[in-house]
Amino acid sequence: MTAKDRIIVALDVDSPDKAIALVEKLAPHVGAFKIGLEFITAMIVTIVTAPGLGAAVDAVVKIRKLFELMAGKLFWDGKFNDIANTIAKASKVLSTLGLKMFNVHASSGVDGMTAATQNAGSSLPLAVTVLTSLEENDAHNIFGAPSKAKVLQFAREAKLAGIGGIICSPRELELFDKHPELAGFPKATPGIRSPEDPSDDQKRTMTPREAIRAGAHWLVIGRPITNAADPVAAVQKIAAEISAGLRERLHLALLNLSKVKFGAFKLKLHETNPTAPLSPIYLDIRNLPDWVYALAGDVLHDLALSDGIIDFDYVIGIPKAGEPIGKAFAAAIGKPFLRIEKIEESGGRRISANTLDPFEKGRRVVLIDDLVTRAHTKREAIEAVEANGLQVVETLVLYDREQGGLAELNEGGRKTTAASKLSGMLDFFVGQKKITAEKRDEVMAYIAAN
Fold this sequence. Notes:
Layout: E1 7-10, H1 16-26, E2 32-35, H2 37-48, H3 53-69, E3 74-80, H4 84-95, E4 101-105, H5 109-118, E5 124-128, H6 136-143, H7 147-160, E6 165-167, H8 180-183, E7 187-189, H9 208-214, E8 218-221, H10 223-226, H11 231-256, E9 260-265, E10 279-283, H12 290-306, E11 314-317, H13 322-333, E12 337-338, E13 340-345, E14 348-355, E15 364-372, H14 376-387, E16 391-400, H15 405-411, E17 416-421, H16 422-431, H17 437-449
Helix pairs in contact: 1-3, 2-3, 4-5, 5-7, 9-11, 11-12, 12-13
């Protein structure tokens, strides 16, 4: 899922003409369009109150055109909240439209959400938790509990019901990382505003970058896009914020999972140089939860698109840390994944020229790995792949440890690009008060010396 695919534009307008104009402009630049109660009602009223049959037919024609323009990108924000049988029937009717998403209130209970899931067809059902317009005292009055407690309860019930994700305020997003069973559960968040935007009727808001960093999968955004002087430029700015937020989300996920550690560590270099100084940082991008691998794949997907890397046939993850990241990237970008062999032998490890999956020689390949330190492993992998009759277009890595490998590969004609530099991750941690500036300087001094 690319940055733009995470943008859902709320078409909170009162006529098909306005909606058509927006969709025609924005369809290539966003993932979906949401129509809610205002517009759903307006469509019906426009047809029923049209002055004559001809005007009613004209209205129907416009509505049909709108739905054709939104094919595969429509989020029906009907917020079903009824008995399970009624929700089942309504969901089944909606499934015939080929929607991308629709929603149901989590307060309809596990049975109601299960009914939506079982009758969704190819659409993705989402569960509304606590409306972003509600203050804390409102949540107490309606649900008899704080909003955060109810959001967590609703999320667990939604997952139990097989719902595809939830809708919650961005201010509740960070709750989920404290509950591993919910950390990767997809979340759509309205209430997204840039710092210069008015909050309007949303009481609990965040910027796009903040919301993605906190764990949002999709951002539902209305007026900051639809009221903008240039809606396309507004969307492109939001997509750039989302890309930055995804990288920061990955930084935080690795830190929270103790995959980034600070102390004194032996690294691979100590196998051949036992007297080398110990590293003050250890970055371990292996054995991650599935949702973190998916996040890494999306980060590299955005990197590939920004780098113009689209003309290739296969993805290969450099064994072994790069393999699950490569699989996630291949799934994100829709390309076949090939495995190559890494041989353990006395005195070390080597990548062989043996490709373990069927492939067609002469095709173009993108290599994927977790990080680049020195150039040796990447060069070895490139040479092994090309010895087997494939052409390596580029190597993408999540992190550059800034120890010369990336520059050496590029200077040698082996194009290699990193999503983040180690220094950038450390600067982010300093800004988030996760580490001190002194610790960052200690790490970078070690990197420069080794």
